């Protein structure tokens, strides 16, 4: 029996690819939620209060005041949060074990490959103090390979694993900024069509419209500005 939600789920958020996964999912599920901004460019992810919820000092995280036993539960790691919400509300996470296995495969593929590889590429290309051509090439080639894998998977499919699911949301948040990954999207037409299908969903538009407050102290600092705006 899918749950209903009375008290808002607290979403610890900043407007980055991993943060948007949850603002989009909560909009899709249409459950009440309250946003707690964690200014990662300012170091707020290292406060003891936030580390108690997210020990890896990263957003997103949630606190659900109506956890499995009726008591509050906190969850970190976007994939774990998405699975929890999919199970709790009985939506966007398949309807049988076979469907869930396929969704998990592509969700974990995003978590273990797309997120870290795109992140490392961005780091070495944009932020590394010493230029490391080997690392830039290595991760750039991997980014390209991952677009190819997804493009092949989407041949003849509307969504990555059966119907629209948490796996599509997780992947969409990373693939949508292909220009920032130095990808020529004409090479990956299935990814482009899939992207456009998802981007047109009203809940996705609402989830992406959630913007972190701009803090002038941060914006005036060159390094922090890169962290803040480089990830959007
Ligand atoms: N595997 C984690 C990755 C989360 C992550 O990398 N979050 C970034 C923003 S997109 C962050 O909070 N960075 C702050 C930091 O590294 O200190 C997840 O999916 O939740």
SSE order and pairing:
Elements: E1 9-13, H1 17-29, E2 33-37, H2 48-53, E3 61-64, E4 73-76, H3 78-89, H4 97-127, H5 133-153, H6 166-175, H7 189-199, H8 202-208, H9 216-219, H10 222-230
Parallel strand pairs: 1-2
Antiparallel strand pairs: 1-3, 3-4
Bound molecules: glutathione.
Residues 16-18, 40, 45, 57-60, 77-78, 111, 115, 231 line the site of glutathione.
Largest β-sheet summary: 4 strands, mixed
Strand content: 5-15%
By secondary-structure content and strand pairing, the structural class works out as alpha+beta
Helix count, DSSP H or I runs of 4 or more residues? 10
Distance between the termini: 37 Å
Mean pLDDT: 94
Secondary-structure element series: EHEHEEHHHHHHHH
Overall radius of gyration: 18 Å
Strand order of the largest sheet: 2-1-3-4
Ligand types: glutathione
The dominant shape is globular
Walk me through the structure.
With 232 residues, this protein is of the alpha+beta class. A four-stranded mixed sheet has the order 2-1-3-4, covered by helices on one side. Helix 4 runs antiparallel to helix 5. The protein is globular, with a radius of gyration of 18 Å. The model has no long low-confidence stretch (mean pLDDT 94). The site of glutathione has 14 residues, from helix 1 and helix 4.
């Amino acid at each position: 029996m899918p749950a209903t939600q009375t008290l808002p789920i607290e979403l610890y958020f900043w407007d980055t690819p991993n943060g948007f996964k949850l603002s989009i999912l909560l909009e899709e599920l249409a459950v009440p939620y309250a946003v707690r901004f964690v200014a990662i460019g300012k170091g707020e992810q290292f406060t003891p209060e936030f580390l108690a919820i997210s020990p890896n000092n990263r957003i997103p995280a949630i606190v659900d005041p109506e956890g499995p036993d009726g008591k509050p539960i906190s969850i970190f790691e976007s994939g774990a949060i998405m699975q929890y919400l999919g199970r709790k509300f009985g939506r966007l996470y398949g309807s049988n074990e076979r469907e869930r296995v396929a969704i998990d495969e592509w969700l974990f593929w995003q978590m273990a490959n797309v997120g870290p590889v795109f992140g490392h590429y961005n780091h070495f290309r944009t932020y590394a103090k010493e230029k490391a051509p080997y690392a830039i090439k290595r991760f750039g080639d991997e980014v390209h390979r991952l677009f190819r894998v997804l493009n092949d998977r989407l041949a003849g499919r509307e969504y990555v694993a059966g119907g629209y699911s948490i796996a599509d949301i997780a992947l969409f948040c990373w693939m949508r900024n292909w220009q920032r990954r130095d990808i020529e999207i004409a090479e990956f037409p299935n990814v482009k069509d899939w992207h456009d299908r998802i981007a047109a969903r009203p809940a996705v538009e609402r989830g992406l419209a959630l913007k972190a407050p701009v803090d002038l102290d941060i914006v005036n600092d060159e390094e922090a500005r890169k962290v803040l705006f480089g990830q959007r």
